[in-house]
Amino acid sequence: MSAAGTTIAIIGAGFCGTALAVQLLRRPPVLPLKVVLVNRSGLMARGVAYGTRMENHVLNVPAARMGVLPGEDEGFLDFARRHDPRIGGGSFVSRRLYGDYLETLLTEAAVNAPAGCQFRAVVGDVERLVPDGIGGELWLANGDRLRADQVVLALGHYAPADPPLPEAQRGFYCSPRYVRDPWRPDALWGVKSEQPVLLIGSGLTMLDIVLDLRARGHVAPIHALSRRGLLPLAHRDLELPPVYDAELPRRMLERPNARHYLRALRAAVADAARQGGDWRDVIGALRGPTPALWHALSGHERRRFMRHLRPYWEVHRHRCAPQLGQRFEAERASGGLHLVAGRICGFDERPDRVIVELRRRGATATEHLDVGAVINCSGPEADTRRSREPLLAALRGDGLALPDELGLGLRIDPDSYALIDEQGIASPWLRYVGPFLRARDWEATAVPELRQHVTRLADSLRATLSRPAGERLRYLI
């Protein structure tokens, strides 16, 4: 800590970065304090998820469960009702409105922060972190340097990885007819409305892009391809919260392996169906206990789950809003959306189109599809061992961050959220909160889970910074 006080730098201004900044500004761990929120785009309190301006892009969690702050569970519902009194606790509202809510919370927290607590927003791309005493220095792409006593990585989702192809075929990924990141602001501007489009992936991102294209006046057929051809599933419209089977997690933990988990889950779904219940409630019963179920699996069993069950779990666990499910079924029924299970074998780009070579699941022969553009909707790059993002690559190269053995995230101290370095030591100044926590707990992507992690991290920062500087290193190690 310098004479000017303590600086906490938060890299990433999506949900986690914003929620943490709000908590620190409302209850500073130490004074004087400067909270610096760094984001690569100019959109603070938005991130990828809430930066969209499309009204068709809605939350996949009901409004009553989207509050940010401890003790304010219905904070977002109250905010949303001020904009539209018809919104209820079970409503699935626009992600743009949720971004407005986060932005409002951040603005109010900054304006009403106690004396001695300052907030600064920085637009920039952090490419490297360099240790400096018990703190660190942020090196930005534009040459700027920022020093902080504590640095929190609130990194969210990165752009999808390119589908695997032989090196000779990979030149297509530099073509303007290929969209690697569908969430880039200008990503869909070059897609011609009268030409068919291929979407790689058939999950929730695919559904968002289908709706986006239609809203832009796209009239040609849309094709969606994924390895298994699994389709998005929808939530139900519910007036009251569902009732969950509290015994199911206990039965699963009796034999912690992937095969037993699957059998127990199938039996519970069948039993629920016989009693007139719904499979969604069976999946919902596992939401809270998911970390315990994941922790109980050995490394071998986790790999088995990843290899055989992960796609099926994710399509059942992460569902779309009911109204989007209806739009999806209408697209399929009209013939405007075609789903294919298979793999891409190559691309042949012509002046006016792209000929995609693909092989359907279970087939030996390939076939061809003519489209005007190919959009990667396969989901964010998930493997932290191979990610090409400059900051993540630099953290790996400098030994400051250690990917977990499955590449799901980073090794994180369970109590302090400190990054564990290549020597197995928890950093005294560098922490992480966000979806890479799935390496530890598996479920770390939705607001109900992430807000708990943010609160625990804020409490850890308060506990750490309340100690004299000389004691912090000994405490964390």
Mean of the pLDDT scores?
Answer: 92
With helices defined by DSSP (H or I, 4 residues minimum), what is the helix count? 15
Q: Between the first and last Cα atoms, what is the distance in angstroms?
A: 19 Å
Number of strands: 16
Structural class assignment: alpha/beta
Give me a quick take on this structure:
With 477 residues, the protein is α/β, with parallel strands linked by helices. Helix content is 34%, strand content 19%. The two termini are 19 Å apart.
Features:
single chain; six-stranded mixed sheet; seven-stranded mixed sheet; disordered C terminus; 477 residues; 19% strand; 16 strands; alpha/beta
SSE arrangement:
Layout: E1 6-11, H1 15-26, E2 33-39, H2 47-50, H3 75-83, H4 95-111, E3 117-123, E4 126-132, E5 135-140, E6 145-148, E7 150-153, E8 178-179, E9 197-200, H5 204-215, E10 222-226, H6 247-253, H7 258-274, H8 279-284, H9 290-296, H10 299-317, H11 322-334, E11 337-349, E12 354-360, E13 367-371, E14 373-376, H12 390-397, E15 418-420, E16 426-432, H13 438-441, H14 447-465, H15 469-476
Parallel strand pairs: 1-2, 1-7, 2-3, 7-16, 8-14, 9-10, 9-14, 10-11
Antiparallel strand pairs: 4-5, 5-6, 11-12, 12-13, 15-16
Helix pairs in contact: 1-4, 1-14, 6-7
Account of the protein in words:
Strand 11 and strand 12 form a beta hairpin. Helix content is 34%, strand content 19%. The two termini are 19 Å apart. It is of the alpha/beta class and 477 residues long. Helix 1 (15-26) packs parallel to helix 4 (95-111), helix 1 (15-26) crosses helix 14 and helix 6 (247-253) runs antiparallel to helix 7 (258-274). It has helices spanning 15-26, 47-50, 75-83, 95-111, 204-215, 247-253, 258-274, 279-284, 290-296, 299-317, 322-334, 390-397, 438-441, 447-465, 469-476, and strands at residues 6-11, 33-39, 117-123, 126-132, 135-140, 145-148, 150-153, 178-179, 197-200, 222-226, 337-349, 354-360, 367-371, 373-376, 418-420, 426-432.
